[in-house]
Write a structure and sequence with these properties.
By secondary structure, this protein is α/β, with parallel strands linked by helices. 17% of the residues lie in helices and 30% in strands. The chain is globular. The chain starts with a strand and ends with a helix. The structure holds guanosine-5'-monophosphate and magnesium ion. Guanosine-5'-monophosphate binds at residues 6, 9, 34, 64-72, 117-119, 123-125. This is Hypoxanthine phosphoribosyltransferase.
Amino acid sequence: MVVVGLLDGVFMFVADLSRDIEVPHVVDFVVASSYGANTVSSGNVKIKKDASASVRGKHVLIVDDICDSGRTLASLAELFRSREAASVRTCCLLDKTCRRVVDVQPDYVGAVIDDHFVVGYGMDWDAKYRSLPFIGIVKPHLYDPAARVEEGDDG
Ligand code: 5GP
Ligand code: MG
């Protein structure tokens, strides 16, 4: 079995998850970014750093921190299927089901969350806050001025 973590946001989750998986496995990492196209194909995700080893004939668990539009997990699953993995399953710590654009349902989900921007436990905002030992919700007015009135200006 190969656990394929999608960097960078997943590094803390994979560290914990890997220690809890009781079957022998290796851990590999991919750096991917989605292009933003609406269709599902291995063509709409850009691989910046590919997996180090072949997945041919192996059971693959793709792990991401968050499933948002679903493009990343859907595209990576298709990519590893095309590489003739024995099986491909997907896992995310957090699932923003309300934001889904492509038809994908991760096989293993830590928690379903509402439409918030979250940081900490590996997840960043502009490269910051990854090291927080908890997951926090960024107040919307910090990235969306229109949210200030609704939310109250309490900093
Ligand atoms: P998708 O391809 O499903 O639209 O995007 C998934 C990726 O978007 C995740 O791997 C993560 O990098 C990023 N992402 C989505 N929502 C959030 C969020 O609330 N906080 C952070 N830090 N990253 C997010
Ligand atoms: Mg990511």
